[in-house]
Structure formats: structure tokens, C-alpha cells
Amino acid sequence: MKDSVKDNDGGKLIAIVEDDPDVARIIEQVLADFGFRTAWCRSGGDLLRRLRNLSPVLCIIDLGLPDMDGIEAMQRVRAQTTCGIMILTGRAHVSDRVMGLELGADDYMLKPFEPRELVARVRSILRRRETVSDTPPSQIACFGNWRFNLGNNTLSGQDGEEHVLSNAEAELLRVFVNHPNRILQREKLMGTRDVSPSDRAIDVRISRLRRKLEPHTDSPSFIKTVYGAGYLFLAAVSWADSGPADA
């Protein structure tokens, strides 16, 4: 397959996983107009074969791929790289959206799309991922029986249980541990992304994080919902360096 990479003076590389050449061409042109480089992959397998050499900052993945479902492609990308992931699809079902966000997508956008909105969402994902934490990333946040390493997105319990958080989960927990015992509005938790009243992405991510942190998700002890106001991270947070855990 011909490698479709556009060089735009140091622009960030975005992989487009789309089997429709016309749609792929539109996405490439829109992103090129705003200084991004693009690599077009016709299938999930094509992306996975080229992923290591491409090293994109973001993958835009269609769900209706010829060789595998886009959700599977997204999961396999997530297992190999920490790049951002946007799902761009014609599937409007809520279940598809929830599943995509549950499994680690940074955003979910429907076709047909408005080009300026696509660029705005791409930039929003990249800004969120590049935002420097209020706390040095070499540090570890300690709360309850958990230790959260901000440097490698790992969450470890005293019993040895360890989770590697997705980027979206880690970004969310990073905001919480930096602002404990304060009510945080949805807009704060979503960083620089524009949030509409009907956008439930943050609620999906809260639910996903709760399942890792809370022994009883029906009665959460760390992440409290403050109806009409936002969310509250109810915990005493202390900080340690990234060396071995204290005995």
C-alpha cells in the first residue's frame, strides 16, 4: 500500500484508519490544512503492522473496518502505544459510544462531521494529553490503600493488586488527587474539552475509575457525586517519590 504521509514542517502525525478512500481523503486534507501530518491505513491490520514505525500522536479509527471491528483495533492499539484515540464512525448507537469510551477512546465523533469540529476535537485531545500536571510526574499520590504513580499511570493496592490506567482514566485521577476534598465541575474534569450538558463521556470515565478504586461501587467512598454541582474526591492525599513503597 502506498504510504500517504504529508510533511508539514514538524506537524504532529495522526494515523487515519478508514477503508473509504473518499472519507480518508477529506480527513487528510482537513488535518493538513491545520498543519498536521497524516498516515492513511485502510484496515486495522494495516495500522497495527505500521504502528511502531509511525509513532502517531493520535489514531482516528472508524468502527466499520474490513478486517476487524474498530473496537478491537482500538484495544490492540491501546495495548501497544500510549497515543490518543478518536473514534470517527457512522454508528450512532449509545451502546457503541459507551463501549468505545469505556475501553479507552479519548473521544467519539459521528459521521458526517463538520471539518472545523473535527480539528477542534483533535486539538482538544492533544492539549489534554500535553497538559503538565500540577504535581511533578515522578511523584506518587497515596490515598486510602492506593498508590497512584503519575509517571507510568499505575494504580497499586496494598494487597499487591495493580492496574495500568488508560490515559483518560489517569488524566481524571490526576485531577482528583491534585484537588482532593473539593467539588469539581464536569468542565474541570474534562480539561480543555468543551462539554455540553448532554455529554456523558465524563460519567462513563467516572464509572470506569470507580470500578477500579471502590470495593462497593453502589456506595462509593472516594468519588462522590454531588448532584447539580459535580464530583468530590473524598480522600486525604499524601505524596511520595517514585522509589520503592514504604515498608
Task: Walk me through what this model shows.
With 247 residues, the chain is of the alpha/beta class. The protein has 2 domains: 13-130, Rossmann fold, CATH 3.40.50; 140-240, Winged helix-like DNA-binding domain superfamily/Winged helix DNA-binding domain (Arc Repressor Mutant, subunit A, Orthogonal Bundle). It is 36% helix and 21% strand. The protein is built from 8 helices and 13 strands. The chain has helices at 21-33, 44-54, 70-80, 94-102, 115-130, 167-178, 186-189, 201-213; strands at 13-17, 37-41, 58-61, 84-89, 107-110, 140-143, 146-149, 154-157, 162-164, 183-184, 223-226, 230-233, 238-240. The chain has a 5-stranded parallel β-sheet with strand order 2-1-3-4-5, sandwiched between helices. It has a 5-stranded antiparallel β-sheet with strand order 9-8-7-6-13, covered by helices on one side. The chain has a 3-stranded antiparallel β-sheet with strand order 10-12-11. β11 (223-226) and β12 (230-233) form a beta hairpin. α2 packs parallel to α3 and α6 crosses α8. It is elongated and about 50 Å long. The modification 4-aspartylphosphate is found at residue 62. Residues 138-235 bind DNA. Pfam families: Response_reg (PF00072), Trans_reg_C (PF00486). Keywords: DNA-binding, Phosphoprotein, Transcription, Transcription regulation, Two-component regulatory system. InterPro entries: CheY-like_superfamily (IPR011006), OmpR/PhoB-type_DNA-bd (IPR001867), Sig_transdc_resp-reg_C-effctor (IPR016032), Sig_transdc_resp-reg_receiver (IPR001789), WalR-like (IPR039420), WH-like_DNA-bd_sf (IPR036388).
